[in-house]
From TrEMBL:
InterPro entries: Pirin, Pirin_C_dom, Pirin_N_dom, RmlC-like_jellyroll, RmlC_Cupin_sf
SUPFAM superfamilies per UniProt: RmlC-like cupins (SSF51182)
Domain annotation Pirin N-terminal: ranges: 61-140
Pfam families registered for this protein in UniProt: Pirin, Pirin_C
Domain Pirin C-terminal residue range list: 207-309
Protein's UniProt name: Pirin family protein
Organism: Psychroflexus gondwanensis ACAM 44
Length: 337
């Protein structure tokens, strides 16, 4: 298309990414009022395929939940998830004995490594009003050298995540939330210790970019070897490189060149993913990622043998009652927000 824009694609349910990322799941649901059990009313559950409800009926889905929307316990191995909850809440529980509730702009970084069971439920904590959810879950691959690290999860609380707010030459507001990497003088919080993003020279960048109506933003250059993709998921249209691109599209970009974006007549929301490719074979089977069929066989066999430590919680759809935002880590450390 141009020297900077390599490809433009329509967004689907799972957004396509490039090495070292695997994909980005985007969840936007207008959940109804909640009940005492933190799920929707029985009336709201009628005519749904509970346990596998991915049809956006009445503006929301139950996903794999039967009582509470979300994803009851399931395994991960060989990669990382970065879960950003901009609206609503997620209740996390795992086989390490850790749990927590996060949302309102918080992010969770979880390195699955050699294997972990976890659940992520979306509690409908408001009983007097609707419970909107806006959530991104980014899957970041791990290189072969890190596939067998111990699992670990870390909270990036929204009060601590760096945000750069600036004005363009016309006084329009630009806001960049730095979840990974660095934008201008602001460096992101540290990820988990064994994360790919914790290694030097990987150029892992994850930014949430908000542009006021009519704002002009210059996306700065990255490393020449990096893959870069920009998701334009909400707004009207942006003008760039002589093209008018409507919302609901992604742009594969040449990372070594800057890109000027001119926003249209509505606030625009974008997500940037960037990083140097791992350049290793990828064998994926559901929530498991390996480098070869033999290694995949080993992961599956280990899961069948150990269940990655088993499930220590009383329910598959485990939620955390009327608690506020908190994190209880595997070492017993409790953080309440």
């Amino acid at each position: 298309m141009s020297d900077v824009i390599l490809k433009v694609k329509a967004l689907g349910f799972h957004w396509e990414t490039k090495d070292p990322f695997m994909f980005c799941a985007f969840h936007q649901d207008q959940f109804p009022k909640g009940e005492v059990n933190l799920g929707p009313s029985k009336e709201g559950l009628k005519d749904r395929f509970l346990g596998n409800d991915f049809h956006k009926k009445d503006g929301w889905r139950m996903y794999h939940g039967k009582e509470v929307p979300g994803f009851p316990y399931h395994p991960h191995a060989g990669f990382e998830t970065i879960t950003l909850v901009e609206k609503g809440f997620a209740d996390h529980s795992d086989s390490m004995g850790a749990k927590g509730r996060f949302g309102q702009g918080d992010a969770q970084w979880m390195t699955a490594g050699k294997g972990v069971l976890h659940s992520e439920m979306f509690p409908l904590i408001n009983q007097d009003r609707e419970n909107p959810l806006l959530l991104f879950q980014i899957w970041l691959n791990l290189p072969k050298r890190s596939k067998k690290v111990d699992p670990h999860y870390k909270m990036l609380w929204h009060e601590d995540i760096p945000i750069v707010e600036e004005k363009d030459e016309h006084g329009k507001t630009i806001r960049v939330k730095v979840i990974a990497g660095k934008y201008k003088s602001e460096k992101a919080l540290d990820p988990t210790p064994d994360s790919l993003a914790a290694e030097d020279n990987t150029d892992i960048q994850i930014w949430r970019i908000s542009l006021e109506e009519g704002a002009e933003f210059i996306l700065p250059t990255g490393e020449a070897e990096s893959n870069r993709i920009l998701f334009f998921y909400e707004g009207d249209q942006i003008k760039t490189e002589g093209f008018e691109i409507p919302a609901g599209h992604s742009l594969d970009l040449e990372a070594s060149q800057e890109l000027k974006l001119v926003n249209g007549n509505k606030k625009a929301e974008l997500l940037l993913l960037q990083g140097k490719p791992i350049n290793e074979p990828v064998v994926q089977q559901g929530p498991f990622v390996a480098n070869s069929p033999e290694e995949m066989h080993d992961i599956i066999r280990e899961y069948q043998r150990t269940q990655f430590g088993g499930w220590p919680w009383p329910k598959a759809e485990f939620t955390h009652g009327d608690k506020g935002r908190f994190a209880l880590f595997a070492d017993g450390n409790l953080v309440e927000k």
